[in-house]
Amino acid sequence: MKKLLLLFIPILFIACSDDEGENNQNSEVYGSWQFIRVDTIMDVQGDDMIQYIKDNIFVYSHAYGSTDYFTFDENGTYSHSFMKNGELTLWSGAYEAKDGYLYMVEEGTRIGRQYYMKNGELHINSNFTESIQSELLPGAIVKALIISSVFTRAN
Could you give the 3-state DSSP secondary structure of residue 32? Predict the structure, then answer.
């Protein structure tokens, strides 16, 4: 269960651009964003597995929820702060929003996640379909599991 909970931390995903002449899509995400909820898209068979996933999403969204912030600056850098076990955790690095993907560099690793804007909210999708396979409960089948961390502009 701890492995699954760690998967929901919406942090390890971003990159930097070497295409300075291209149209900059970063402006869409400029500013500060506060986590508000988790949405799921899943094709899962097995009632126990569905409940297991829902329980872990609930734990994540309440453990990090109101303390989870991203700030994306115009210069292509970001910071991510959240409370974990009562302590403030801060990560930062480079980012690029391009062609529907938000790329971030964290500790030298470039990871991209699909993102989109809807009704003024920033949705960052993480596909856990493959990684959840090691957590399967007996009789469960997971054909799709996409977790969307949803953020609203922070005041």
Answer: strand
Q: Where are the beta strands (DSSP E) in 46-140?
A: 69-72, 77-84, 87-98, 101-106, 109-118, 121-127
Instruction: Give backbone dihedrals phi and psi of 138, rounded to 5 degrees, phi first.
Output: -55, 130
Dihedrals φ, ψ of 150, to 5°?
Answer: -110, 130
pLDDT in 10s for each residue of the chain, 155 residues? 444 433 444 433 333 334 444 445 778 899 999 998 888 889 999 989 888 888 887 766 666 556 789 999 999 999 988 877 778 888 899 999 999 999 998 778 888 999 999 999 999 998 988 888 888 888 889 999 998 999 999 97
Read off the tokens for 151: 């953020």
Query: What CA dihedral angle connects 35, 95, 75 and 18, to 10 degrees?
Result: -160
Q: Say which residues have a Cβ less than 8 Å from residue 15's Cβ, sequence separation at least 6.
A: 94, 95, 96, 103, 104, 105, 110, 111, 112
Q: How far apart are CA 149 and CA 127, in angstroms?
A: 11
The answer to whether the beta carbons of residues 106 and 15 sit under 8 Å apart is no
Place of tokens 């900059």: 24
Q: Are 76 and 24 in contact (CB under 8 A)?
A: no
> What is the CATH code of the structural domain delimited by 2-16+29-153?
2.40.128.280
